[in-house]
Amino acid sequence: MSDNMQTISPDALRTEYVSPAQCEFFTGSSGFLGARINGTEYRRVILMRALPLTRPDEYICISDVEKNELGIIEKLSDFPPEQREMIESELSKRYFCPVITEIKSVREKFGNFYFDVMIGERKKNFTVKNISKNIRYHGSGFDIIDIDGNRYNIPDYSQISGKSRRNLDPYIY
Amino acid sequence: MKKRPPEKPEKGKNTLPGYVVKALGEKGLDAGGALFSIKGDMDSEACYKDTRLFFDEKGLYLAFCREKTVKPKHGHVPPDPEITVDKIIAVPAEEADSLSIERYTSTGRLIMSCGEETSPLTYFSPGLAGEFDKFARVFNTYKETGEVKLPDDGAGDENKCKKCGAPCPPGKDFCRKHDKNKGTATRLIKFFGGYVPQIAVILFFMILNSATNVLVPQLSTRALYDDVLANAGDTVLAESLKALGVLVLTVVGIRLLKVLLTMIHDYMSASILPRVMYSLKVKIFEAMQRLSIGFYSSKQTGSLMDRVTRDATNIYWFFTDGIPRLILDGTTLIGVLIVMFMMSPKLSLIALGTTPVLLFTLIAGNKFFRRLHHRVWVTRSRARSLVSDNINGQRIIKAFAKEEDESEHFGELSRDVMSAEIKVGLSEATLFPLLDIVALLITTIVLGVGGVMVAKGENNMTTGTLLSFIVYVNMLKEPFGFLSWISNWWARCSDSAQRVFEIADAIPEITEKEDAVGFENLRGSIEISELEFEYEPAKPVITKMNLHVEAGTMLGIVGKTGAGKTTIANLIARLYDAKEGSIKIDGIDVRDLKLGELRKNIGLVSQDIYLFIGSIADNIRYAKPGASMDEVIAAAKAACAHDFIMKLPDGYETRVGAGGQSLSGGEKQRISIARTIIQNPKILILDEATAAMDTETERNIQRSLSSLSKGRTTIAIAHRLSTLRDSDYLAVISEGTIVEYGTYQELMRLKGEFFRLYKIQSEALKTIGIGGDGEETGEDSQEETHHE
User: Fold this and answer.
1) Which residues are CB-contacts of B577 (< 8 A; sequence separation ≥ 6)?
2) Residue of B nearest to A171 (CA)
3) Predicted structure pTM score
4) What is the least distance, in Å, from the CA of A95 to any CA of chain B?
């Protein structure tokens, strides 16, 4: 091995997770989510999910407004309830994704797929193009992305009604 | 019926609609002086909510409300929507300096700044990003200049139908429903316009063909039983045999006539359809060549390959297979029904009375099987993708010893295919006999009732008539079956045709002006001023960029990945148009130049190398098809490609591109450079053109290029600073704008971003034991880099 070659220390491969003891979130007067991490206060932090589809409550990356990573939350459940609520609220806005509870109809016309769905009690119509790309399976359910970039989620495909499944089945690739 | 003015005010006057002003007035806010407004769809907690965002001289306002459209009574003017204002946020003018928007995964947020302070205002869904971005820009301009100046980019209105707001195909103003060019069938039929006489003849022969179908049971069944067999006992054998012989010969004759008729119309169709498909495919391909690069990279475009191949094939099969069967089965059905009613109206009504059961079974069965076949198709295509992935990734699979895992994965997917196929097989085995039972049921009823009629001698019903009637009843099954799914087939053909016409009708984003000018003695100076560009709304790639490149000089551009370097190259070559600002070549805006002339004079060696299917020589002379072999070799030598080409067994005749000789990234880049050298452009843009080469080859090419670039304006984009050592000037780009500009020495003395990049690369080289001897600045260090 050349002298210049360096072995990678196991420390370099270890991910630094922030624990609730090291990190406290707060909502600043401006309305942005801030955090105190290892004694340093950040007036605005940005939270991003590493696994937004399958493990939304784990591996949450905290960064400052310049996108410099400040740490990673390994498990949201480690944090106390009020802190968790703050984090979840921030994430739910960034990853806004209405849950589809019923698929009333899917009509295909000229390459556009017109979805008529229920999001809880609210009726919603949206259009999807290129369905092989925009209806994505993620383990148990589907993410659907419409022509404007809005995302809709079916967390568990087996939990929606048989009629809804029959309506979507022909369009699943 | 009176038409109500649109709720959204006319362009250029985005003020609030009257009913909103009234509702806000009731809440104590005078919004009559609103200068600009937009409608949002989320509140500050990212929940769906109707919002109205507007500003006037006094401040910025955000009203959260609930709006409900009221359906008009027939023939009445639509009433105003019902509106309830829940909350109003008012920000005094002095507390809002500027607005900006941030885009997240599936939302966006409007941010307000006042001095150093920033605060969030509201969220919006991604579809409104363009509208909010426009609002922010109008507001910011108003704060700077005191004028409400609308950007003339149509942001927010693009890709929405001007009539109903539904999505539009790229480059069109109306959705398919409201498009004047609607009528897929009419448009498709127009392609057959030149063949009207032939089509009339085909139709005539098809109808004759159907007539023979209808005639045969009359002879082979009814006449056989009633006229020959029934009288057999009463006449002498010779006469019976004679009558039988005549009948058999007539049936054979009709059958032969049918074969002849089929041959004639198939022969004629075979000579027309490929011609029509040829016109259609050429039309799509020509349209695709006209379209701008943005169309190809658009996420909504889908697979263009499919349009030329699969969609055209869908149309082809519908016209080759579907239409002839439709005509044959349709006319046969009509003919059979007429004959049936002529034979026995009573039995016909009984038979038709039971056909809804058959039709229902057919339609339900079709729907059911379509779903099952779709599942088989999906599972098969997943398994196929895995096989393709596996073959392409064999090297990696072996390197990570993942053979068993891959086999297991394939096994899982194949099991899915197997299950889906078993389900189809079992369902077919169950349902097809069921269909036969339904058909049998109809035949049995007809036979029973008809038998009684024969026994009673009712309606002159004879055994022969009854038997031929049953043949006719059975003949109904096939046309019914076909007609029950022809509509699906037409829907698929119509979808394909729509997608094809979408390309044919799309208007290119980059178009040449009618009064476009050409170059006269092109010198090659480039002037970029206040340039702004974004691929997606509110995601600026180039912001307020100013740059001047003197004719005949070389400018090196450096910057991090994603800084906007390649975008500049694309904008200079006018592959995209700037959102704001301008790019001028010799003082002429690129948008005023003839496109062909502009691109002929700009040689772009892109980082995405693409070699077309053909020989290496053909690829090199792509820009100049008439180039002699001497020119090709000279260009290859200048691009340091000649040596490796000569080592290939077929030399310059080696076939490259898909299915051809595989070349390394560096080799492809050299062919690509040779292709540009032979073009002899006045402006040369090298976008990471030598990134995949070793340092020695890169240096050799640079020597060639620098001798070639005399009198030529060159823009070289690179990560490796050594690539840019011959540049007269260097520009450092960061986040879409130029942060440093000057000669190499000036930038090194400045000790800014360029110096930092230089240090990083120099340190990296030292780490692996090459070059770099510590702290250098200025000319010495430049020399050091040269000899790395």
Assistant:
1) B509, B510, B571, B591
2) B374
3) 0.64
4) 6
